[in-house]
Amino acid sequence: MKKSANNKVSLKKIAKMSGVSVATVSRVINDTGRFSEATRRRVLGIVKETHYRANTLARSLRTNQSNSVGILVPDLTNDFFSKVVQEIEKNLFKAGYSTIICDTQRSPEMESYYLSTLEAKSIDALIVISGDHPFDADSLTEKIPVLCIDREPRNKNTIFISSNHRTGALIATQRLIDKGYFPVCVSPNYASTSKTSRILGFKDALELNSLKFTKANSLEVIPKEQESYDKSIEAFLLKDKDKRLGLFCLSDYIAAVAIRQISKLNLKVPDEIGVIGFDDSKYASLLNPSLTTIHQDTGKIAELSANMIIKLINNPNLDIQKKIEVPVTLVARESA
């Protein structure tokens, strides 16, 4: 039996065809209450046969759930962010949840606007990825589960998941030191939780090797302003020509631009200058030379985030671990 394009199947019609009450059909579709296995099979068979689709808005009014999760992300062009969002969306979709993804472009005004928009859509939960200041879940008008990825929450009851950025930075910097380079931390000019942790890891490595953190060990660049970016790296490299520099770049993107600029100066990686990135992005192995970097387990971060947010939607008072650090690993390639 095929449903015509104009034939809207109702619960009442499903009930009549199944030989049960409307209430029983509703219980079967929403998997609540009591009914026999035979009834379940009969009702679901009719549902499939008639191509019945539940009215999501009406169901959300009854259950007080929209089966949707909002995701705030600062920059979808960033390879790490886009991979995490994609994996989270995949995991939530499998569990029957839709996602509303908002790219704030690191703008406080856009973040505030998107938060209001998401709340107006009655999302069941919110996932916040990165940002330049701690996220305050108490600022939301509705009390919903909130999970932060790579962004310190202001509220101690908010779930916080991140890679072990500090350890990753320490490992990367120690590798540069072990290979005889003078370590330099190259960072973006915006603030974030992960940036702070990675710089701390860089400083940890210096301290372990009785080295001091000075201006000679640090370079801050503006990733979105390419000309300024290139000039900053070029000026720094020319200033310290007498040193065998090892650049620990806080992202693979910064590392890729650094390798290009080093090549323009007719210097060689890794012979004269070493470069290590962070993220293990999809193009890290395609660079020439291929990029040594710190790998973040985006799949694990996404799986944990989706599973925990679903548990909190179903049980807001559930007592679960509030802070989780996902291990990172060094991927050794040609650049250092």
Explained architecture:
Helices cover 42% and strands 18% of the residues. Helix 1 crosses helix 3, helix 7 (165-178) packs parallel to helix 8 (193-208) and helix 9 packs across helix 10 (252-264). Mean pLDDT is 88; it is low at 1-7 and 56-63. Strand 8 (245-249), helix 10 (252-264) and strand 9 (274-279) form a beta-alpha-beta unit. It has helices spanning 11-18, 22-30, 37-50, 56-63, 79-94, 108-120, 165-178, 193-208, 226-239, 252-264, 298-314; strands at 68-73, 98-103, 125-129, 146-149, 159-163, 182-188, 218-221, 245-249, 274-279, 292-295, 323-326, 329-331. The radius of gyration is 26 Å and the shape is elongated. The protein is built from eleven helices and twelve strands. The chain has 336 residues and is α/β, with parallel strands linked by helices.
Annotate the secondary structure layout.
Layout: H1 11-18, H2 22-30, H3 37-50, H4 56-63, E1 68-73, H5 79-94, E2 98-103, H6 108-120, E3 125-129, E4 146-149, E5 159-163, H7 165-178, E6 182-188, H8 193-208, E7 218-221, H9 226-239, E8 245-249, H10 252-264, E9 274-279, E10 292-295, H11 298-314, E11 323-326, E12 329-331
Parallel strand pairs: 1-2, 1-3, 3-4, 4-5, 5-11, 6-7, 6-8, 8-9, 9-10
Antiparallel strand pairs: 10-12
Helix pairs in contact: 1-2, 1-3, 5-11, 7-8, 9-10
Strand fraction equals: 15-25%
Largest β-sheet summary: 6 strands, parallel
Cα separation of the termini: 65 Å
C-alpha Rg (nearest Å): 26 Å
Shape: elongated
Order of helices and strands: HHHHEHEHEEEHEHEHEHEEHEE
Give the low-confidence spans.
1-7, 56-63
